[in-house]
Specification:
This protein is α/β, with parallel strands linked by helices and 327 residues long. The protein is built from 10 helices and 13 strands. The chain has a single domain (2-292), classed as Alpha-Beta Complex (Spore Coat Polysaccharide Biosynthesis Protein SpsA, Chain A). The radius of gyration is 19 Å and the shape is globular. α2 links the parallel β1 (24-30) and β2 (50-55).
Length: 327
């Protein structure tokens, strides 16, 4: 599987007449994100020259939508990893090391499918970072968007439907931005969650939070998406090799809540969204993400979440893996 993915990455970069023009690159691992993957790609490509996306065996239409976006000529690479378990750290680092075999980008930023870059005046991150010392590791923090019972559920675009964000974040959850200087270290490694960078040396680089940039974050978006996400995410995380105590604790808490309250209603989702990584953050701003770089989404007919199919796919993947161990 890795060899096929390496070939796809190589072919993508070799297709550019001037690969040195690829300055800002995003990487993402996605699974069952059909309801948000199209806005994720269209929106974030206004800041990025390329998106390398690894699909973790989605059972919904995520991969179909990605292929349609690629066929439009958008600069994305679609990789595949069918292994079960929340192996995001390993997958992210695989992509980083594969990318730098072919190009020397100014930045690589790890993203999730529910994260959307915000910069002053839609500026490129590589331009904004030029004034920083080259050794500094920049970080961008979440700006949490919250599902509420007052959302217009007839609006299919989650970026238009979910209008409210927290007035203040209870604590800062950050993602690192890798810069060209850091990419020169052969043993560079992102940690779990992409919150910190290890350069493989005793030297620990300074991490600096960017005040004028953020990641709009849409973790819970509908009853169907929340049910599927919470149930499969914690089960996948619990299978992660060498899972350390406390890692993914919020996923386990949400899993227990969902299991006790099935079937979920919009009230349940609003409660979980209000308490996502915090307790009772009730002060919101009506501040939808704007401007959007597209008028309408093209693949809404594919942007549906089938909870039963997602759970069946997870169970079948787990059974296949157990058979492999037994054989």
């Amino acid at each position: 599987m890795d060899s096929e993915n390496l070939i796809l990455i190589a072919a993508f970069f070799l297709s550019f007449s001037n690969p040195e023009d690829i300055r800002d690159v995003g990487i993402a691992v996605v699974k069952n994100e059909a309801d948000i993957i199209e806005p994720f790609v269209r929106y974030n490509l206004q800041f990025l020259d390329a998106l390398i996306i690894m699909d973790n065996n989605s059972s919904d239409s995520t991969r179909i939508i990605l292929k349609k976006l690629s066929n439009e000529g958008l600069p994305i690479v679609i990789l595949t990893d069918k292994r079960i378990g929340h192996l995001q750290e390993e997958r992210m680092n695989f992509m980083i090391h594969a990318i730098r075999e072919w190009i020397e980008p100014e930045i690589i930023i790890p993203l999730d499918a529910d994260e959307f870059l915000i910069t002053p005046d839609q500026a490129r991150l590589s331009d904004l970072l030029q004034s920083l010392d080259k050794e500094v590791v920049p970080q961008v923090s979440w700006r949490s968007y919250i599902f509420t019972e007052n959302d217009d559920l007839s609006e299919p675009d989650p970026l238009r439907r979910i209008r409210h964000r927290r007035a203040t974040e209870p604590y800062s959850t950050c993602k690192c931005i890798l810069r060209n200087h850091h990419l020169q270290f052969p043993n560079l490694r992102l940690n779990f969650g992409s919150h910190r960078v290890n350069l493989g040396t005793e030297y620990i680089p300074e991490h600096l939070l960017l005040k004028d940039c953020a990641l709009a974050h849409y973790p819970l978006r509908s009853v169907e998406q929340t049910t599927s996400k919470i149930l499969t995410n914690w089960l996948s995380t619990s299978l992660r090799p060498n899972l350390q105590e406390g890692q993914g604790y919020h996923k386990q808490i949400l899993y227990e809540y969902v299991r006790k309250n099935l079937p979920l209603t919009p009230h349940h989702v609003a409660y979980m969204a209000n308490n996502y990584l915090a307790m009772g953050c009730s002060q919101y701003l009506d501040q939808p993400l704007q401007p959007l770089p597209y008028q309408d989404l093209k693949y809404l007919d594919l942007a549906k979440i089938d909870v039963v199919r997602s759970l069946l796919n997870f169970a079948e993947d787990l059974a296949d893996q157990l058979r492999g161990y037994r054989n």
